[in-house]
């Protein structure tokens, strides 16, 4: 009788915390609530992921309700959650291959030098290179994101170099 009641129960089970983030290197590290929340946000956002894209870092965008900056191994993007619908909107993105130079921190501002992606490349009249300034207010947060972008770019370059090197050793007749 007791077993029958347990089987008939329809209580909903909810997660107590977001899933653990396991980084690209596969090493299981101690649980990090902030990283896990960012990873959960990245997965829930349903933003079309690029090939081989993995989550690296995130932070809330100060002054913007339900808006986050997400860093992956391929790009930086600003994602906003639309409350009443529960959907996400990608406000902007900068792919690493479009960076004209490394990002830098100026106080609480993160400067991202990303070439504008438009069909017609019209040079800017002021002669300055295109730049996105992310106003994060706290210098430590800006530096954390800058470091995450730099590390992600470095890891991506290393992966590309390994792939290029391994391609040299493939014999033309053995490719499938």
Automatic annotation (TrEMBL):
Pfam families: VPS13_C. GO terms for biological process: mitochondrion organization; protein retention in Golgi apparatus; protein targeting to vacuole. Residues 16-127 form the Intermembrane lipid transfer protein VPS13-like C-terminal domain. PANTHER family: INTERMEMBRANE LIPID TRANSFER PROTEIN VPS13C (PTHR16166:SF125), VACUOLAR PROTEIN SORTING-ASSOCIATED PROTEIN VPS13 (PTHR16166). This is Intermembrane lipid transfer protein VPS13-like C-terminal domain-containing protein.
């Amino acid at each position: 009788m007791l077993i029958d009641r347990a089987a008939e129960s329809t209580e909903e089970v909810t997660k107590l915390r977001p899933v653990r983030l396991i980084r690209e290197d596969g090493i299981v590290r101690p649980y990090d609530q902030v990283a896990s929340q960012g990873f959960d946000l990245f997965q829930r956002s349903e933003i079309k992921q690029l090939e081989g894209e993995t989550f690296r870092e995130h932070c809330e965008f100060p002054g913007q309700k339900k808006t986050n900056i997400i860093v992956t191994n391929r790009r930086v993007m600003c994602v906003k959650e639309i409350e009443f619908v529960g959907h996400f909107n990608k406000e902007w993105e900068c792919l690493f291959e479009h960076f004209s130079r490394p990002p830098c921190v100026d106080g609480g501002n993160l400067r991202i030098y990303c070439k504008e992606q438009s069909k017609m490349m019209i040079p800017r009249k002021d002669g300055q290179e295109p730049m996105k300034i992310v106003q994060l207010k706290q210098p430590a947060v800006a530096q954390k994101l800058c470091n995450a972008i730099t590390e992600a770019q470095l890891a991506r370059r290393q992966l590309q170099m390994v792939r290029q090197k391994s391609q040299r050793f493939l014999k033309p007749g053995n490719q499938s």
